[in-house]
Amino acid sequence: MKKIVDNIIETLLEILPSGKPVPLHEPFFQGNEKKYINDCIDSRFVSSIGRYVTKFENMLAEFTGSKHAIASVNGTCALHISLLMGGVKNGDEVLVPALTFVATANAVTYCNAIPHFVDSNPVNLGIDIKKLERYLQQDTETINKTLINKKTQRPIRAIVPVHLFGTPVDMDPLEKLCRRFNLAIIEDAAESLGSYYKGRHTGNFGLCGALSFNGNKTITTGGGGAILCNNSTIAKKVKHLTTTARVNNKLNYFHDQTGFNYRMPNINAALGCAQIEQLPEFLKKKRKLAQKYIKAFDGIKGASVLNEPDYAKNNFWLNTLVLDKPDRELLQTILERTNNTGIQTRPVWTLLNKLPMYKKCPSMSLTCAKALKDRVINIPSSINLID
Amino acid sequence: MKKIVDNIIETLLEILPSGKPVPLHEPFFQGNEKKYINDCIDSRFVSSIGRYVTKFENMLAEFTGSKHAIASVNGTCALHISLLMGGVKNGDEVLVPALTFVATANAVTYCNAIPHFVDSNPVNLGIDIKKLERYLQQDTETINKTLINKKTQRPIRAIVPVHLFGTPVDMDPLEKLCRRFNLAIIEDAAESLGSYYKGRHTGNFGLCGALSFNGNKTITTGGGGAILCNNSTIAKKVKHLTTTARVNNKLNYFHDQTGFNYRMPNINAALGCAQIEQLPEFLKKKRKLAQKYIKAFDGIKGASVLNEPDYAKNNFWLNTLVLDKPDRELLQTILERTNNTGIQTRPVWTLLNKLPMYKKCPSMSLTCAKALKDRVINIPSSINLID
After folding, report:
1. How far off is chain A from B178, nearest CA to CA, in Å?
2. Which residue of B has its CA nearest to A356?
3. pLDDT at B192 over 90
4. Which CATH class is domain B33-277?
5. d(CA A237, CA A243)
């Protein structure tokens, strides 16, 4: 084992700068960040109204090829609203991978719905669609065009494909499956800004897609997110619901439903405008870094760095070292050795079905997700690692 | 009627600058706003971690005299978490004034609880405590130390006093009432940063108090809020719940409950630090402006400007013109004439029990709130209206 670990550390050190700590993912501010923010302060419009929010939304829509983009306070809130748009309600179940950040399941809970966990595959780390198909055939039935979980008798309303670390899920077979089983698709594209499936930007496949601009993402607005949507009626609803559902009338304060205070502030959008201007350059650099990693680990025994699938163009948000076989001890040793030498690496999340609040939720068998938990480590992926 | 309107407009024009539009409430940025934000960008910590968030929280705690202040993405989310801390849960009722911004009731709904509307009084525009006492005596019973609504048979768990436009509710009799009826107090202090009840800052009376730093508030962070709390155990829970409930362990991602992504980003906190440094000066100016209004309207027939109660020191967030008698036509004429001449004024909100999603909620009689709806107009209150 020691030799494998030594080889991995040595290979990482060939690519990464030495003598100073290397964070997992730092933001990069070399554009108009200060200019736009200072201008935003001068305008006094720093809050829920302002031209930067609209500008950022337009830039996002253009970049992703989505008809509409609605900016929100963060990705979790974007996912919450997207699920509501998918008709998810009290007592429904929503299929989500067990291997994802906790926010995916939390957003389901905010709708008073129940996460129903599905397994992953080792190629793209996303939902194992073939296994899911067999599971749905056996464990569900369709009554009045609604998919019902035979065990719980609850409707399964939607599915949330998560493009983990920026690698797109195989959307064609997923869409086919969802048509067959009457499932709404809500994409968790929090990690996949700049990732494409067969030429189409992620977040554009389902009814709504949620983006995130948290500090650790490819571009950041401090905190922030957005809902991508190609249906104009739904986009209007999203905007309405994220802005307290106020019916517009200057001299009257009237709200027609229980809305949310989920609008991205203008000052955060100002930062976003400067960041998205640099996104194409960021993506080039992230691709270069990924290629360096993949090449360097090509000859290494016992581990490799995840490449993009044939059908995809990745953003390579977080590069991912994958051990050939699950080995918790080896994984832990690599994590400790790298972090102790200043190279920030991290394991994947505890599988969601293992968290106290979700352990009683319905779940298919999670063989692959469990194995991946003991195989996968994220390695430093900041833009400034390529000059 | 024309004469009353003419007098009111003339009096406003004596105080307000002419020749340019006067907004209701503009933010004021003449301090270290740009310096701190640029420094925040340079530090790269713009997101959920950073020294400005901690600094802002410490400054808030010091200013308000609260043991703890936890910064959040906005006031609505601060109120949501505060209610959860008050033990509000699925199927509970929570007493809220019908005369308040919709977020007060929405936050109750986010807890799957039901707003139960109470009447206001014309002295401070807050809850009519004496009327509420008579109502609770008649319409509720206490079973096992829980207050039960006789009609709905649901527990009434908490009450949300709202310090409307910055005027503190009369907290002593309210606290007495709440002790008698086993009600948790959760303060909606969104509008009352800088307002004191008998020398104690608002937001410090209940279990938790929610502040807001939206763009229209006395100080702003773009979007933002905070939870004030004097109980260290609860403060820890608040911090935990607003930061995805992650159990801290660098090399393990584990969350012990369904948390929220409600943390204020560092870049918004940087703006907040600059703003709070100027708060004492802002409050002096707002007091001066209020005194000018009160004096100017002293001799005017049919209307006056709300002064602070004897027990209170107001922040005078939004100055409030109050007609002697409810008169919807007169109110509408004043609103239209002022807004048409560039003086931004606004009516109070539609009473919450009149909104479609809340019209079936339990309610006491709302005589005074209804009357106030036809008596009250907010008038321009920006800090820059004083020299």
Report:
1. 28
2. B256
3. yes
4. alpha beta
5. 10
Q: Find chain B residues with C-beta within 8 A of A220's C-beta.
A: 46-47
Nearest residue of B to residue A90, measured between CA atoms: B112
Show Cβ contacts of residue A54 under 8 Å, excluding neighbours closer than 6 positions: none
> What DSSP letter does each residue of A198-258 carry, written as one string?
TTEETTSSSSEEEEE--TTSSS--SS-EEEEES-HHHHHHHHHHHBTTEE--TT--EESS-
Chain B positions in Cβ-Cβ contact with residue A25 (cut-off 8 Å): none
Q: Which residues of A336-356 are buried (b: 16+ CB within 10 A; e: fewer)?
A: ebbbeeebbbbbbbbbbbebe
Superfamily of domain B2-27+279-385: Aspartate Aminotransferase, domain 1 (3.90.1150.10)
pLDDT of residue A100: 98
- Compute the distance between CA of residue B262 and CA of residue B247 in angstroms, rounded to an integer: 16
- Per-residue pLDDT tens digits for B36-81: 999 999 999 999 889 999 999 999 999 999 999 999 999 999 999 9
Find the length of chain B. Answer: 387
Closest-CA residue of A relative to B377 is A251
Is the pLDDT reported for residue A190 higher than 90? Answer: yes
Closest to B24 measured CA to CA, from B124, B165, B126: B165
Residues of B in contact with A41 (CB under 8 A): 29, 33-34, 37, 271
At A105-164, the pLDDT tens digits run 999 999 999 999 999 999 999 999 999 999 999 999 999 999 999 999 999 999 999 999
Distances (CA, A) of A303 to A61, A296, A378, B328, B346: 38, 11, 13, 75, 65
Query: Which of B258, B264, B347 is opposite residue A251, by nearest beta carbon?
Result: B347
Q: Which two tokens stand for residue A368?
A: 């692959």
Residues in chain B with CB shorter than 8 Å from the CB of A372 are none
Fold of A2-29+279-385: Aspartate Aminotransferase, domain 1 (3.90.1150)
In the chain, the amino acid numbered B379 is I
The one-letter amino acid code at A110 reads Y
Check CB contact under 8 Å for A106 and B41.
no
Chain A residues whose beta carbon lies within 8 Å of the beta carbon of residue B107: none
Inspect the interface and report whether the beta carbons of B268 and A103 lie closer than 8 Å.
Answer: no
Q: CB-CB: which of B34, B102, B263 is closest to A255?
A: B102
CB contact under 8 A, A335 and B258: no
In terms of Cα–Cα distance, which of A8, A4, A187 is closest to A85? A187
Quick: pLDDT tens for B279-328.
999 999 999 999 999 999 998 999 999 999 999 999 999 999 999 999 99
**CA distance linking residue A93 with residue A87, whole number of Å:** 11
User: Residue B75's closest chain A neighbor by CA?
Assistant: A261
Domain layout of chain B by residue ranges: 2-27+279-385, 33-277
Residues B28-42 have a mean pLDDT of 97
B186, B160 contact by CB (below 8 A): yes
Q: What is the 3-state secondary structure (H, E, C) of B304-342?
A: EECCCCCCEECCCCCEEEEECCCCHHHHHHHHHHHHHCC
Distance (Å) from the alpha carbon of A27 to chain B's nearest alpha carbon: 6
**Of the partner residues A255, A332, A357, the one whose CB lies closest to the CB of residue B355:** A255
Residue-wise pLDDT for A160-184, tens only, equals: 999 999 999 999 999 999 999 999 9
> CB A254 to CB B355 under 8 A?
yes
